[in-house]
Amino acid sequence: MKKILIINGHPDKESYCFAIHDAYKKGVLNSKAELQEIYIQDLNFNLNLEFGYRKRTELEPDLLAAQEKIKWANHIVWIYPVWWGSYPAIMKGFIDRVFLPGFAFQKRENSVWWDRYLTGKSARVISTLDQPAWYYNWINKKPSHAAIKRLTCDFVGIKPVKFTTIGSLRLSKDSYREKWLEKVKKLGKQNK
Q1: Which residues pair with 166 in a beta bridge?
Q2: 3-189 architecture in CATH?
Q3: 80 Cβ neighbours under 8 A, 6+ residues apart
Q4: What is the 3-state secondary structure (H, E, C) of the chain?
Q5: Long-range contacts for 149-153 (Cβ within 8 Å, ≥24 apart)?
Q6: What is the pLDDT of residues 3-46, one digit of tens each?
Q7: Where are the domains of the chain?
Q8: Across-strand partners of 162?
């Protein structure tokens, strides 16, 4: 059975990303999959990986609970807006603090290689843009996609990673946004 975890990286509950989250959730609830959610903006934690990897920073209870949800899931759905070519600072802080050595990966002693601890999971990334998706993909070379796919998910063993990129939102009409919510709801129902 599919165990789906939605991780919402937008800091504003009134954003379109929350409407996307709700649409995907409705789709999942109309399937046979199990569902858990993380709204990063609701978590109580320090965004800063204070000492890097030199010294361990104790994880707050919300981050320990997030790790348990990530372990539980076999499909992770990331939802976030693209800001300055990347995801919001709160999501970056979440990744820095949660995807730690010993949990998500482990570097091998005296080696450049590492072990991936989150294998057997897949991911869907749903991101929003103020520019057309084609412009983000071809002109700007989709930097947040590379960061989340290659430098986070692939690094810890989560694959495949598929993308849904919605843009341009800034000048979009309600009909455009509603069309996308229906597409996202369908993805949720199909557990993709």
Answers
A1: 128
A2: 3-Layer(aba) Sandwich (3.40)
A3: 8, 9, 10, 17, 87, 88, 91, 125, 126, 127, 128, 144
A4: CCEEEEEECCCCCCCHHHHHHHHHHHHHHCCCCEEEEEEHHHCCCCCCCCCCCCCCCCCCHHHHHHHHHHHHCCEEEEEEECECCECCHHHHHHHHHHCCECCCEEECCCCCCEEECCCCCEEEEEEECCCCHHHHHHHCCCHHHHHHHHHHHHHHCCCCEEEEEECCCCCCCHHHHHHHHHHHHHHHHCCC
A5: 149/125, 152/95, 152/99, 153/123
A6: 999 999 999 999 999 999 999 999 999 999 999 999 999 999 99
A7: 3-189
A8: 124
Residue with tokens 């002693």: 109
Cβ neighbours for 75, distance < 8 A, ≥ 6 positions apart: 2, 3, 4, 5, 33, 121, 122, 123, 124, 191
Rounded Cα distance between 71 and 66, Å, is 9
Distances (CA, A) of 155 to 11, 21, 29, 146: 25, 25, 30, 11
The neighbouring-strand residues paired with 39 are 8
The per-residue pLDDT for range 97-114, each reduced to its tens digit, is 999 999 999 999 999 999
Sign of CA dihedral 68, 70, 71, 74: positive
Residue 72 and residue 96: Cα distance in Å, rounded? 20
